[in-house]
């Protein structure tokens, strides 16, 4: 048996303020930092020893990863950062308040943009640039559906994470609501028309246990203090 734990980063300032972020960097709130500490304390109780941690290129996920690893006394393990675990790019919605967008387009349309599988939010007219991606030769998206997010995420799973799991190496993934929904859809074989029912809260770890063939044996939502 081998273990995978996936965690959405702690609350960011954009989460608190109900703002679409996508590939925009925003810091954690005090509550977000506290959530990272709480996740670490909960994982410490499981006794899982990770061989690697995996996270995105976004500071809110990287900082949460470091907080968790410090709490479980595993800061020494390799941390693999990849743009493939980034939050989905919300295109022209980035930086906008979700309540304002709801007023403009209605709740049904907003739900499809946020929770649907193939729905693409309004695209940017000009592509953004950031040297962290320029150095990789990666073009920032104009907008992404969840399906597009899953397509760019799966090569990292297949080439990096899955082989380590098959070698018996426990893995930690700290990422984002949409990128983790895309991974959960793949791991749990969730139909396209049911993924809109899946929500991944900030700072609530999910524990997968796999057999030697990487088939899911057990899925557990780790209980946090106070729950």
Automatic annotation (TrEMBL):
Residues annotated as binding substrate: 8-15, 21-22, 60, 87-90, 98, 114-115
Listed CDD domains: HP_PGM_like (cd07067)
PROSITE patterns assigned: PG_MUTASE
Pfam families, per the entry: His_Phos_1 (PF00300)
Known catalytic reactions: (2R)-2-phosphoglycerate = (2R)-3-phosphoglycerate
Site residues by UniProt (Transition state stabilizer): 176
Claim: Isomerase is one of the keywords in the record: yes
Keywords: Gluconeogenesis, Glycolysis, Isomerase
Pathway noted in the entry: Carbohydrate degradation; glycolysis; pyruvate from D-glyceraldehyde 3-phosphate: step 3/5
Active site, per annotation: 9 (tele-phosphohistidine intermediate), 87 (proton donor/acceptor)
EC number: 5.4.2.11
HAMAP family attached to this UniProt entry: PGAM_GpmA
Family assignment from sequence similarity: Belongs to the phosphoglycerate mutase family. BPG-dependent PGAM subfamily.
Protein's job: Catalyzes the interconversion of 2-phosphoglycerate and 3-phosphoglycerate.
Identification of the protein by name: 2,3-bisphosphoglycerate-dependent phosphoglycerate mutase
């Amino acid at each position: 048996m081998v273990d995978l734990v996936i965690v959405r980063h702690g609350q960011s300032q954009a989460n608190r303020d109900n703002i679409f972020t996508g590939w925009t960097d925003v810091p954690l709130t005090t509550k977000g930092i506290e959530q990272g500490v709480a996740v670490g304390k909960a994982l410490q109780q499981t006794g899982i020893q990770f061989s690697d941690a995996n996270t995105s290129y976004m500071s809110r996920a990287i900082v949460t990863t470091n907080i968790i690893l410090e709490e479980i006394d595993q800061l020494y393990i390799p941390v693999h950062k990849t743009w493939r675990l980034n939050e989905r790019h919300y295109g022209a919605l980035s930086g906008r308040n979700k309540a304002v967008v709801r007023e403009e387009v209605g709740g049904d349309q907003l739900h499809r943009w946020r929770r649907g599988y193939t729905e693409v939010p309004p695209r940017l007219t000009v592509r953004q640039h950031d040297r962290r991606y320029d150095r990789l030769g990666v073009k920032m998206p104009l907008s992404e559906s969840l399906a597009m997010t899953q397509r760019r995420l799966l090569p990292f799973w297949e080439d990096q994470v899955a082989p380590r799991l098959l070698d018996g190496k426990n893995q930690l993934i700290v990422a984002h609501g949409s990128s983790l929904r895309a991974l959960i859809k793949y791991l749990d074989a969730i139909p396209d028309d049911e993924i809109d029912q899946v929500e991944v809260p900030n700072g609530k770890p999910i524990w997968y246990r796999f057999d030697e063939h990487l088939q899911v044996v057990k899925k557990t939502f780790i209980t946090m203090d106070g729950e």
